[in-house]
Design goal:
Elements (H helix, E strand, L loop, with lengths): L29 H4 L1 H11 L5 E8 L2 E9 L17 E2 L3 H16 L26 H5 L23 H13 L3 H13 L5 E2 L29 H5 L9 E3 L1 H12 L3 E2 L2 E2 L3 H7 L12 E2 L15 E5 L3 E6 L4 E7 L10 H18 L15 H4 L10 H44 L1
Antiparallel strand pairs: 1-2, 1-11, 3-5, 4-5, 6-7, 8-9, 9-10, 10-11
Helix pairs in contact: 2-10, 3-5, 3-6
Length: 431
């Protein structure tokens, strides 16, 4: 049920998301926010994903929190609940998990951004890798491969992907596994009780399924979708985290608060500002920034930052407007749209735009029912080639074939005529 409530609730409930406030209490328009429902539902109707979970928050409260559709395409599937439905958040693991852990260790002066990785992982060194720093891993400028199918090689090889190396650094410095460190230092203190790696089987009914026919040979539900993360035991720096939209709203608010939430300081404010500011191109440290691409939309502020996930997830945080936008889907679950990647890209961007346009003193958009990408659905389900084109192609093929046949017949006729002429000449000579 939509948690856009017309009365303010100011009591924070651990593990139950943010307190609720009406849009007008935080300077937003409830009528403009309603555009979110149209955008998300059009994505479902087009076959981009079976369900979605959305939270929009501003000034310390959730103003829009709703589940859409179902966990799967099955008619008997459970309806999505923004507080209870758990999604594989894919690459949001990099920022909610790994980058946050690095920020904590940086705060504690246990690591330095310009420290060579080899200082912490001696086996990482060799050649130019001796010069690779933690900062370069965070900004994707280390020169390491963007990806490698580690799961195809062996079970005892650790991926050299940047985020995974950062995760290993956390484990070396903290002296405990990445998942345990994050649970102890981040998730439990924030009351994010629905956020975890390797969910228990007892939670399976609340977890949105992902791949139906993965390389593993069986449908995935409650197991990390990413094959590399699975090969690494389900806990990796780049993927493996599961969470709810309500839990992630608490995390987003903590970041907006400068690293603090409900009296608990997770990260220092200067460190939050450092890691979320642009460091190389559009990249911040671990985080990405909003440049109108990657589903961030057109209207987020110049200091906005966030990230997306391959399974159909995204989180964008706008400090200038004191707001955030969270979207969780399982668009990798047997999508019915012809181009599900285009669907989720447009829906992400529309969601951000709709949220920002709902701010009463924010930007304005010309009126009209086709103002959002989802209203146009360009490229979502492109039609097959028109029948007239097929007929034209067939006719052309027929014409070419006919011409070839005529040419061959003409050649044969000419050859036959030449032979007859030669025969007549020969007869005359004999006579």
């Amino acid at each position: 049920m939509l948690r856009v409530i017309l009365t303010a609730l100011t009591v924070t409930r651990a593990g139950d998301g943010l307190p609720i406030k009406s849009p007008t209490e935080v300077g937003m328009s409830s009528s403009r926010l309603s555009a979110i429902e149209r955008v998300i539902e059009r994505g479902i109707k087009a076959g981009g994903y079976p369900g979605a979970s959305v939270v929009v928050g501003r000034k310390g409260a959730a103003v829009f929190e709703k589940g859409f559709g179902k966990l799967s395409w099955s008619e008997s599937s459970t309806a999505v609940d923004a507080q209870r439905t758990i999604y594989d958040v894919a690459s949001l693991t990099k920022v909610v998990g790994t980058t946050t852990a690095i920020m904590i260790l940086f705060d504690e002066k246990k690591i330095g951004l310009d420290d060579p990785v080899v200082n912490y992982i001696p086996t990482f060194g060799g050649g130019d890798k001796d010069k690779v720093t933690i900062r370069q891993l965070l900004t994707h400028t280390s020169g390491l491969p963007a990806g490698r199918d580690i799961w195809r090689i062996a079970q005892n090889i650790y991926s050299d992907l940047g985020a995974d190396v950062l995760g290993l650094i956390v484990e070396v410095v903290a002296g405990e596994p990445l998942d345990k460190f994050l649970t102890r230092r981040v998730f439990e203190p924030l009351g994010m009780n629905e956020t975890m790696f390797r969910p228990a089987d007892s939670l399976r009914s609340r977890i949105a399924p992902t791949e139906v026919t993965p390389p593993r040979g069986y449908p995935l539900r409650g197991e990390v979708h990413d094959e590399n993360a699975y090969a690494l035991g389900g806990v990796a720096g780049h993927a493996g985290l599961f969470s709810t939209a309500a839990d992630l709203s608490v995390f987003a608010q903590m970041m907006l608060n400068g690293g603090e939430y409900n009296g608990v300081q997770i990260i220092s404010k200067p460190t939050v500002e450092l890691f979320t500011s642009r460091a190389f191109g559009h990249r911040a440290l671990g985080w990405d920034t909003a440049e109108g691409d990657y589903g961030s939309g057109r209207f987020l502020g110049p200091t906005a930052y966030g990230h997306t996930g391959f399974t159909g997830t995204s989180m964008w945080i706008d400090p200038e407007r004191e707001m955030f936008v969270i979207l969780l889907t399982n668009r990798v679950h047997a999508a019915r749209a012809l181009r599900p990647a285009k669907v989720i890209s447009d829906v992400r961007a529309d969601l951000s735009d709709a949220a920002v346009l709902s701010v009463l003193d924010g930007p304005k958009l010309a009126s009209g029912s086709r103002r959002f990408r989802a209203d146009r659905e360009v490229g979502w389900n492109p039609p097959p080639p028109r029948a007239s084109r097929r007929r034209h192609g067939s006719s052309r093929h027929h014409t070419i074939a006919s011409a070839t046949s005529r040419s061959r017949a003409s050649s044969a006729h000419k050859s036959s005529s030449a032979k007859k002429a030669t025969a007549r000449k020969s007869t005359k000579k004999r006579r």
